Amino acid sequence: MKITDARLRHIVGKPYSGAPQIAYEKGLSLRISPKGKVTWVLRYNFNGSPVRVKLGEYPAMKIKEAKDKRDEYKLLVSKGIDPRGNHIKLGVNSPKTISALIEYYIENSLMESNKQWPAIESLLRRSIIPHIGDYPADDIERADYVCLFKLEKERAGAKHATRLLYRFKSILNYGVRHGFLKQNHLNHLKGSDVGEMSKPVKRKLIDVEIGALWVCIDTLPYHETMKNLLKLTMIFGSRVGELRLSEKSHFDFEMLTWTVPAENHKMGRKSGAEIVRSIPVMAEEILKQQIEIEPDFKYMFPQYYIVKDKPLNQKTPYRPSLVLAQMMTEMGYTETRNHDMRRTARNAWEALDFPEKVSETMIGHKVHKGVQAHYLEYYYLDEQLDCYEEWCDYILRQTEIFLRQKREHGNLRVVS
């Protein structure tokens, strides 16, 4: 999209649903909130580390002014001077209000550490800023926060208020660590003080239910890409996102390995470690079928509603997950969602007596800790392959049992 004043005037201050970040040129980009707040952001490297800094907001800072500011900053960087240094020492850019603290946290921490930052930003703008956004951050007391969470509990529910507490508590802790706040008044509050704690639902399938799930996935009324994604999630015991973001280059069919880069899995951003899984024959066949859907695309699971060489949208598997759960419950089996496949696989591997370290490596957990973690980088690939092959055979056996029971008894569940 070409950036012009006319285009920005059309966006600013109006509901916006496009890309949250738009590159301009030479490290300069625009961040646009769902409410049409337009912010100039500059990226540069300093001492080998990536830096992102807010320059100003449009229309107060026009395109030419943003370019001039960018050039000024880059000149300082070229001389070995970090442009942020003097400003921070003078306190000019220190966030004073709750809104400013939230902005600073989003731009300097959240956007780097959490791929779901637009949704979190939207939550904060909807639930925090309207109540206390203009207040000085250091002047708000615990009682004020309790009042805020009470209002949000009445507006959106008890579980929402609790989630909001823990999200905002982390922001205030960030402000304390960076010297913007003297203390975090929320540290002594618990979720039960402001709302209701969510109780995790732990569902797992047993025996013939695993075969029923495999058949249900195969008969889902969705694109083959979605069915292949869910089948492989069941085989590997991986998170859906690990497959959704995968590129074809991550799969080595000579070595029979799938490498999940650190940036593509939940713990990778913290540990910097990749996940390496062996590829059993059944998964290899599904992957090769998937490649044939869009042979020239970079991503293994590209968007298919409007065909693009981009990973499936994070929300795309949600509706198939609901349909899958409905199909299972209609047959009298355990309601099953996407993440339940991961728990089901891990519990089945335990029942099949797979070695614990091998199972934990397959699921993507860290198995070497302390001194071992420093010296060992062993993925148990041969052991993984043996276990995955046995797991695939088990899935097929349970599928045959389910189909036989279905022929004999219809859709009713048969308890053995």
Automatic annotation (TrEMBL):
UniProt key word DNA-binding: yes
Keyword terms: DNA integration, DNA recombination, DNA-binding
A Pfam family matched in the record: Phage_int_M
InterPro entries reported for this sequence: DNA_brk_join_enz (IPR011010), Integrase-like_cat_sf (IPR013762), Integrase_catalytic (IPR002104), Integrase_DNA-bd_sf (IPR038488), Integrase_DNA_bind_dom (IPR025166), Integrase_recombinase_N (IPR010998), Phage_int_M (IPR053876), Phage_Integrase (IPR050808)
UniProt domain Integrase DNA-binding: residue ranges: 3-84
Keyword DNA-binding: yes
Annotated signal peptide: none
Domain Phage integrase central residues, every copy: 113-191
Residue ranges constituting the Tyr recombinase domain according to the UniProt record: 222-376
The family this protein is said to belong to: Belongs to the 'phage' integrase family.
Protein name listed in UniProt: Site-specific integrase
Source organism per UniProt: Photobacterium pectinilyticum
